[in-house]
Design brief:
Helices cover about 0% and strands about 35% of the residues. The protein is mainly beta and about 60 residues long. It has no helices and two strands. Strands 1-2 form a two-stranded antiparallel sheet.
């Protein structure tokens, strides 16, 4: 989980890249299978009103090596 607060002006955008070493929280190799990755952004206007949430998801697959 990554949480960061960033203020953007109208029509400004940002891109974030994340790398996963395919290990779980205990440092063990994640099992073979499909995993869903979800990015969520909470946004408000300049007065911290009219808040909403945007999400995008994708699936990645870990295969046997």
């Amino acid at each position: 989980e990554v949480i960061e607060e960033v203020s953007l002006v109208a029509n400004q955008s940002m891109t974030f890249d994340e790398v996963w070493d395919q290990r779980d929280d205990d440092g063990q190799q994640a099992p073979v299978g499909n995993y869903t990755v979800t990015a969520t952004s909470v946004h408000c206007d300049a007065n911290l009103e009219n808040c909403g949430q945007l999400s995008a998801s994708g699936t990645i697959q870990i295969r046997e090596s």
